Amino acid sequence: MIDYEVVIVGGGATGVGILRDLSMRGITALLLEQGDLAHGTSSRFHGLLHSGARYAVKDPISASECIEENLILKKIAAPCISNTGGWFVQTVEDDSSFVEQWIKGCAQAQIPIHEVPLSEAYEKEPLLSKEIVRVFEVPDAAVDGFKLVWANAKSAKRYGGHYKTYHQVESFQFEDRRVTGVIARNLLNGEMLTISCKIVVNAAGAWASKIAAFAGVSLEVICDKGTLLAFNQRLFQRVINRLHTPGDGDIFVPHETITILGTTSEIVDSPRENSPLKEEARKLLAIGEEVLPELEKYRVIRAFAGVRPLHREDSDVPGAAEEGREVSRTFALLDHELRDGVRGIVSIVGGKFTTYRLMAEKVTDWVSDKLGNATPCRTAEECLSEVPNTVHEKARRLLPCAAAEKMIDRLGEDADSVLAEIERNPGKGKMLCECEMVSVAEVEKIASDQDTHHLADIRRKTRLGMGTCQGAFCTYRALPLLWKDKGKYDPIEKELTLFINQRWKGIHPVLWGQQLRETELTRAIYASILQLNDNRGE
Amino acid sequence: MDLKQDNVKNLDACIKCSACTALCPVAAVNPLFPGPKSVGPDAERFRLEGIEMDIKCLNYCSNCKTCEVTCPSGVRITSMILGARERAKQSKHSDGKTLQHRFRDLVLGRAEYLGRLGTIWPSMTNTVLSISLMRVLMEQILGLSRHAPLPSYHTKFKPQGSFVQSDKQVVYFPGCFAKYNDAQTAQAVVKVLEHNGYQVIVPNFHCCGVPLQANGYFSRGRENAKKNLALMEPYLKAGLPVITSCTSCGLALKEEYPELAAAGAEYIGQQTYDLFEFLWELHERGELREDFQSVPVSLGYHAPCHLKTQGIGTPSVRLLRLIPGVQIQDLDAGCCGLSGSYGFKEEKYDIAMQIGKPLYQSVQQGVAEGRFQTMTTECGGCQVQIQHGSGVKTEHPVWYLIRAYDL
């Protein structure tokens, strides 16, 4: 008697994509995630839905995969995607021979590009440097990692899929070199859990080698740290890429109310090494200046870093594996039975956020084959969620337009219950987080959600604390709502300190100008008025 | 008046302290208005994303600019809100106004044409406007509150008098209120300046543009400003000061005209003076005629919002205190509520009255307790609104100089 046919380890885009695909094909599955869904690499990136053009010259397979998936995701995940379009801009510094190669590469990968006259470019993007030589439009877009991951999880749940967050895998059970179960610890209460299954899918991203090691299998994942900057406002209306050999700091992505610039690329020892540094921030600004002059005068609200899990064995550039950018961005499905003689476990490594669905499809095909399930994949056709028009209308009636649309995009069908609460109690329609327009009712709903255990979980689901003030005002406003679910967030002072410190992690590398003034105000509120350093409340 | 804003100085400078919203007169009385921070810098980040705010919210802003005075970061919040209104108006979506309100705003924005029309036969205009049936009709047809204190019309201001020829010259910008509703005050300003040895030049100026802007006619407002600048340019180049007696015209000349791409824009800001600011500088230089007769009067003073925004303090209070016998106290009781034509609108009238309530009460109390007899304030709109709200006579401070000089 087994608990689930499949256990998936890792709640990033790939993991939830697999959970959804399996569930849609009627295969019982449980996903285990050590933190909150999308707390890792799946939310620590540009938020760029690649058109593939970035890989057109060096990595044609990735390029083709990206453009195909780009078009599919725009269709099935529209609420998670802002179809901004993108430009590749060649500055006077950039090599023209690369441009010719790039145009050919795009044609080969079937990425539609067209040249934009400079006069039109400056009209549409007035902040663009006057040192631009050529501009090409590509079908890039902005994608929200948090929303996409949660939309997949919710869709999977509707198909009977299960997931448990804050559950860390500690070991596997074996029978005759076959993995037959997973032992995991509930990090919130320390309880151990044993789940028997037929197949384990290792989709742990940057943590994949650690998971593989539980099966006695070695798996090399390169941890490539990338630091990014979040600007206070939308500087561009579309994705802006430098038209040159992919390098550091050469992509701007307008994301909701902010703009993200990145990234750096540095090999690190562990996925936990994701603290952004001031030098990295300065470096990004200096490179970004070549596309947007006087960039340093624009306010940076925080820096953040993610760790790309790159798979070394895929590298077709001999001897270049140490350089993160030289490793192919295609993915690999590792059948450990063929590779290492261990049955019942498969690893999915490498790849990109943009290709998460394709990766999930390949894994699910493999699993289905093993389990003898012949149901075809439908994730390329079936939309993740569809919110009825009546909900949109109701939201626009009860909330300011910006807040209404944003909430529906974030919560999908759950928006309805928030609106019902606002209808009952109009005071709850007030904005708790004013920078990102998150209502009291929305925070209350998410706080009471069974998948929410920390303020940071609320942040990932709502954008609370992610705007200009970086939590200065919304954090203390959210506390009374946490108090209602007292048992879950105890001790509440610790929750407050944790959240403020998480915000500080991203603020301190960019502590200058207006953000420094903001931080002084924040410090006055928490260190002085609330005496946070003295009232630890243990 | 060119509303293209600098997003570094504005959007990025806001640290979300909410001081503007805490002191916003409209937000204090109207729960439907989320305040200047919300519809200004907060919403602007969403507007850059292409998501528009509810236009009704934007229209609650009365353009009093208290937020800009309050902001510790120097964010031009009102300009941001007006800019959003302008873009909302230009966009294909409805600006949320009914046809009636659109027509009403078209009319209210045109203080100059109304003035020209009203001064053709002022007594007839005033008689018609005082018929209550007429006001009921105007409310129903135009959306102008039947209770609002519409100012009466007088013979249009035509500069007259001795036509002093002097090598000391100033340009006077009377503004529509003085020109069409209160020519005597405009005449008094001229007399006071002439008494101090100045030749007063009054070109045939157009409306400064503020009413047009406040009612959503931004490009017309800019056109007016450019026409006025063209009229002033030769004088500005010659270094002549431009004197205003209306604090809103003065603010526009000082803060918005310099942003226009037009000849003279580089001078206008620093060469514009509020009348009393100018006279006070004369006093400081020892050039003001101070042969004052005693004027035994005790006055309550209200500082108009757009005077506060000019950041020059209250020069009229300082100057009137030089006159023997004058007692004057600054009530400091907030906005009068009218904000140009805001309080005339039927859907805004009650808000305006609520905003001004602390001021009216302070005025009535001061008079009842015998602390002062009558009110004075520079702004014509504040004058009619304070009279309307408190029943106490309110005049421009220049009238006490006229009495002191015995002109």
Describe the model.
The complex is a heterodimer of chains A (538) and B (407). With 538 residues, chain A is α+β, with helices and mostly antiparallel strands. Chain A has 3 domains: 6-40 and 146-219 and 328-371, FAD/NAD(P)-binding domain (3-Layer(bba) Sandwich); 51-142 and 222-312, D-Amino Acid Oxidase, subunit A, domain 2 (D-Amino Acid Oxidase, Chain A, domain 2), CATH 3.30.9.10; 429-529. Helix content of chain A is 37%, strand content 21%. In chain A, the strands form 5 sheets. In chain A, strands 5, 6, 7, 14, 15, 16, 17, 18 and 19 form a 9-stranded mixed β-sheet that branches. In chain A, strands 9-2-1-13-21-20 form a 6-stranded mixed β-sheet, with helices on both faces. In chain A, strands 3-8-4 form a 3-stranded antiparallel β-sheet. Chain A is globular. Mean pLDDT of chain A is 92; it is low at 314-322. Chain B is of the alpha/beta class. Among the domains of chain B are: 19-90, no CATH class; 291-405, Rossmann fold. Helices cover 51% and strands 7% of the residues of chain B. Chain B has helices at 19-23, 25-29, 36-47, 55-60, 66-70, 77-90, 99-109, 111-118, 122-130, 132-142, 175-181, 183-195, 210-214, 218-237, 247-256, 265-271, 275-284, 305-310, 315-320, 349-368, 380-390, 398-405; strands spanning 169-173, 199-201, 242-244, 272-274, 297-301, 326-330, 374-376, 394-395. In chain B, the strands form 2 sheets. A 4-stranded parallel β-sheet of chain B has the order 2-1-3-4. A 4-stranded parallel β-sheet of chain B has the order 6-5-7-8. In chain B, strand 7, helix 21 (380-390) and strand 8 (394-395) form a beta-alpha-beta unit. In chain B, helix 12 packs across helix 22 (398-405). The longest helix of chain B is centred in the middle third of the chain and has 20 residues, at 218-237. The radius of gyration of chain B is 21 Å and the shape is globular. The two termini of chain B are 37 Å apart. Classes of the chains: A alpha+beta (538), B alpha/beta (407). Chains A and B meet through helix 11 and helix 18 of A and helix 3 of B.
